[in-house]
Amino acid sequence: METEIKEPEEASCCEKNACGCEKYKKFVPKIIAIVLLAIALGGFAYYKLVWKKHNLTQLEAKNKVEEFINKNLMQGGTKANISSVTKENGMFKVMVEIGEGKQKQEITSYLSVDGSKFFPSVMDIAETEKKIAGQAEAEAKPVAEIPKTDKPTVDLFVMSFCPFGNKAEDTIKPVYDLLKNKVSFNFHYIVSSEGDSIKSLHGEKEVVQNEREACVLKDYGKDKWVSFVTYVNTNCGSDGACWETGAKNLGINVAKVTACVASNGVALMKADEKVSVEAGASGSPTMTINGVETKVVYQYGNSEEYKKIICESFNKAPAECAKVLSSGTATAEGGSCGS
């Protein structure tokens, strides 16, 4: 029986040259590290040169949106201005200002970081769902009947820079002028406080304007207050910048108002906060008649409807209730600031 003779296998590299092989093996980790670093640097360079170059800077985003809106979306000589551009949720948040004076609006829009997609409006899903649920709950509740009294009490709760609150102030002025001797009108501001720190929905400027108007109410009475706030609403835009001119035109001492804000502003706001919380008034405007909230307040421009609902709350309506006020044919029903 023959025995199979196998040829000796080829010696491995390391067996042939053990010293040389071991010499290279110790460099393998370093070589791998160098290769990985090269890949990482290459990827970063690609991002910088190919991807990131397509993203806009904040200034470029501002200019692009401003040019796009004014060239393509605006009409009648109206011009849009971009008040701020910030990064938010992977996009540019763009604050667009349109109009002037009382008609001035600030609209939140968004732009993709590469500038290819513009979103002129945005809907917050959570806030929208909350608002719809709140509206459905409110509509499901039975409307409380307003009790009748010999002298009705009307309370209006607002925020000084809320456009809807301003519309309610303007709408109630003819009603106030007509019925101020027959009805107890009261005006309050919706704020919140933490110690001596006062907060209002539209920021510190609104807090100060709330306090100015509350001081006018305290020191000069309701007639001056109504005239003052409607002047500011009509002429001073969304920041109350011309309030001093309005005050002087109405015989209100600017220095006295400023001093009142410094010494009594916080106390006045805390008092209003207490009354607003007790009334359940969190949205501007809110109007109660004899302690019962009415949705008629949302019929902006319709002074006649304001008058009717108030006159219905008398035990015996006075002769003034027979006068017909403006029904505001171009009214926009609904809308408020806050919840």
| Total DSSP E strands | 12
**Structural shape:** elongated
Radius of gyration: 34 Å
- The low-confidence runs, each spanning 5 or more residues with pLDDT under 50, are 10-19, 46-51
Task: Give a quick summary of the entry.
By secondary structure, the chain is an alpha+beta fold. 47% of the residues lie in helices and 16% in strands. The model is unreliable at 10-19 and 46-51 (pLDDT under 50).
Description:
- The structure is a single chain.
- This protein has 339 residues and is of the alpha+beta class.
- The protein has two domains: 58-123, Nuclear Transport Factor 2, Chain: A (Roll); 148-338, 3-Layer(aba) Sandwich (Glutaredoxin), CATH 3.40.30.10.
- 47% of the residues lie in helices and 16% in strands.
- It is built from ten helices and twelve strands.
- The protein has helices spanning 13-16, 18-25, 28-51, 58-72, 125-140, 163-179, 204-235, 243-249, 254-279, 303-311; strands at 80-88, 91-98, 105-112, 118-119, 153-158, 184-189, 192-194, 197-199, 283-284, 286-289, 292-293, 337-338.
- A hairpin with a 2-residue loop joins strand 1 and strand 2 (91-98).
- Helix 6 (163-179) packs across helix 10 (303-311) and helix 7 packs across helix 9.
- The model is unreliable at 10-19 and 46-51 (pLDDT under 50).
